[in-house]
Amino acid sequence: MKAAASYDSDQLLDAILISLDDDKAEEVVKINLRGKSEMGDWMVIASGRSTRQVSAMAEHLTDKLKQDYGLITKTEGKDTGDWVLIDTGDVIVHLFRPEVREFYQLEKMWTPGSQDVLAVDPSKAP
C-alpha cells in the first residue's frame, strides 16, 4: 500500500479516469472544484448503461483505489446501481444510469455556464 502522501489529487484523478474508460463508462466529465469547494479538488461524473454496469464500475474502481493507493473510499448507492457516490477525499465520483443523471443534472448545478466542466476524451487518456 502506498502512503497517503505518495500521490496527489491529479494522479488519483488520472487513475479514476483510466478505470472508468476501461469499464466503458459513458459521457465522462471532470469538474475542477479547486477554489469552489472544500470537499475535494475534482468531481467526476459518468454514466453506465444499466444498474449492473454502474455497480460493477463502482466496485472495480473502489477495489483498484484500495489496491493501488491504499484508499478505503466512502461509497453509497452501490446496491441499487442508479446513482453511486464514491468519495476518495480528493476526488468525488458520481456514477449514474443515464435517466437518473439527466434528472439531477449535477454538471449544471456545479458549473452553470463555466468552462470548468471538461469532457474526457478516452483516446487522449494517459
TrEMBL record:
The keyword Transport does not apply. One of its GO terms (cellular component) is cytoplasm. Keywords: Cytoplasm, Repressor, Translation regulation. GO terms for biological process: cytosolic ribosome assembly; negative regulation of ribosome biogenesis; negative regulation of translation. InterPro entries: Iojap/RsfS/C7orf30 (IPR004394), NT_sf (IPR043519). Its main location: cytoplasm. It is found in: Cytoplasm. It comes from the Bacteria. The keyword Cytoplasm applies. It holds the Pfam family RsfS. SUPFAM superfamilies: Nucleotidyltransferase. Belongs to the Iojap/RsfS family. This is Ribosomal silencing factor RsfS. It comes from Loktanella atrilutea. The gene is rsfS.
